[in-house]
Design goal:
The strands form 8 sheets. The chain has an 11-stranded antiparallel sheet with strand order 16-15-14-13-10-11-12-9-28-32-31. Strands 7, 8, 29, 30, 33, 34 and 35 form a 7-stranded mixed sheet that branches. It starts with 8 loop residues before the first strand and ends in a 16-residue tail after the last strand. The chain contains 9 helices and 36 strands. The longest helix has 15 residues. It is elongated, with a radius of gyration of 29 Å. With 480 residues, it is of the alpha+beta class. Strand 24 and strand 25 form a beta hairpin.
Length: 480
């Protein structure tokens, strides 16, 4: 039997897990630790230089810094309000533009949260509603596509708490990595395997996407018709959604082109616009074809003639080919003429770089609102009435209409590693509420907890941010 004294442990009450933490060790979330018998937050409290543009070298009143902005205290490293009745860790006051302001910061524990992924690609990644998996566990689904992008909805309380233990753990880890701008591998049932990372090009089935399409096939016809008409009798822009045919399109008609008799498969919508010309896939324009002639029907002998020329191009300009009809009215490939080669490059030039966008989305419930006021509905009404501005780690947050405080923010606008987790499982995210001191007192805020900003900002880690200042008067109803 050892005579060594038993090492004292302390209980962390920062989340429902309630870890017992030994001296010098951290809890399950790696966010809180036992330091000399005191519970301490491991990550530093973070302030951003809000709305900080670069300053001219040796500019007027230059103080030697490379940015010029006003420090704004974020909730990163602040700690939580759990259990709900406690005031927020920091409630700070300062004068901004002659107005006494208050910012309430807390790291919210979000069981009701997820991410929306916008993946810039024409490639078919999977059917709508198909399950998306990480490490073999379901973490979300494919949702409706948008213009030039595929969309995923990941996370949510159903995956975090509604499935098995492994599903919740993997969902939480996936959300955390995505929100902290790390690369994550996802697979779609019956579809693609992808590596996605906020602000980076997606890697789909091992191939990195380069360009987001300039538009659908019909839109491309409208944009480039005048540049194409002098160099080919017919132009077809191949697109899984809306394939465009120049001579039939309104743009071609207005340029005086006559129908060529070169016909396209699929369902005709309006003149020069065709749906479902092929199956979706990883080929030309998001179709499954590698030879664009596969979308052609036999030419109409009443209108087509031998020697007619045909230019076919994808919606990104990365695929392009030139054909001439032979005596049997069949398209035979030839070298691209310089003018059409240049036009394909013009299409590529007008495409934006393909990126992955990650939007964090969450509903702010009891613990957040109670940390601001003893009457939580007062905060909801203040947010709805534009008396309080909401930010996520200092980044602008879009407030969804309807009940509650449901917000969405671009994770690339938050400081690095702004998000954490607790193994309940839930994501931990910084959230800040900024409002006038008078409005804060009127909604029943924790007046005794208000401290001057200068008192708490001294030891905070500083980061520059180009995001708008959350305290600017334009963010509030009274400042407009």
């Amino acid at each position: 039997m050892s005579d060594a004294p038993e090492v004292a442990k302390i209980r962390c009450d920062a989340c429902p897990v309630l870890c017992y933490i030994a001296e010098g060790r951290a809890g399950a979330c790696d966010r809180y630790a036992n330091h000399g018998g005191e519970l301490v937050r491991l990550d530093p409290l973070t302030a951003i230089e809000a709305g900080a543009p670069a300053v001219p070298f040796l500019g007027e009143a230059w103080d030697g810094g490379i940015v010029r902005g006003r420090p704004f205290l974020t909730a990163i490293g602040a700690g939580t309000t759990y259990p709900d009745y406690k005031p927020a860790p920091f409630i700070v006051s300062e004068e901004v533009e002659g107005v006494d302001m208050v910012t309430v910061v807390t790291e919210g524990i979000f069981s009701y949260c997820g991410v929306k992924l916008k993946i810039d690609t024409d490639r078919h990644i999977g059917e709508e509603r198909a399950i998306v998996r990480a490490e073999g566990e379901p973490v979300g689904h494919v949702t409706t596509s948008e213009y030039g992008s595929r969309m995923l909805s990941l996370g949510g309380v159903e995956h975090l708490t509604g499935g098995g233990k492994a599903e919740g753990r993997v969902t939480c880890a996936t959300l955390l990595a995505l929100c902290n701008r790390e690369a994550v591998e996802l697979s779609v049932e019956g579809g693609a395997t992808m590596v996605v990372q906020a602000g980076r090009a997606p890697l789909i089935d091992g191939k990195e996407e380069r360009l987001m399409r300039v538009g659908c096939g019909s839109a491309a016809i409208g944009m480039f018709a005048k540049q194409w008409a002098p160099h080919a009798d017919e132009v077809i822009v191949v697109d899984d959604h809306i394939t465009g045919v120049l001579s039939e399109h309104q743009a071609g008609r207005m340029l005086g082109l006559e129908p060529t008799g070169i016909r396209v498969k699929g369902r005709r919508s309006t003149p020069g616009r065709y749906f479902q010309v092929a199956e979706p896939g990883a080929g030309w324009g998001g179709t499954d074809v590698t030879d664009p002639r596969a979308i052609l029907r036999p030419s109409d002998p009443k209108k087509a003639r031998p020697g007619m020329t045909l230019f076919m191009v994808s919606t990104t300009g990365e695929d392009a080919a030139f054909f001439r009809l032979n005596e049997a009215l069949e398209p035979v490939e030839e070298d691209l003429p310089p003018a059409l080669l240049a036009s394909a490059e013009r299409v590529r030039e007008n495409c934006e770089p393909a990126l992955t966008s990650v939007l964090f989305m969450a509903g702010a419930g009891g613990s957040l609102r109670s940390g601001v006021t003893e009457n939580p509905v007062g905060l909801t009404r203040a947010v709805r009435g534009m008396l309080s501005n909401v930010t996520i780690g200092g980044a602008p947050a879009y407030l969804w209409p309807g009940g509650g405080i449901t917000v969405m923010a671009d994770v690339t606008e938050t400081p690095a590693n702004a998000f954490g987790y607790v193994p309940t499982p839930a994501l931990v995210a910084p959230i800040e509420f900024t409002l006038r001191l008078s409005d804060y007192l009127a909604l029943g805020g924790h007046a005794d907890e208000v401290r001057p900003l200068a008192e708490v900002i001294g030891g905070a880690r500083r980061e520059a941010s180009a995001a708008p200042d959350p305290r600017a008067s334009r963010n509030f109803r009274w400042g407009r």
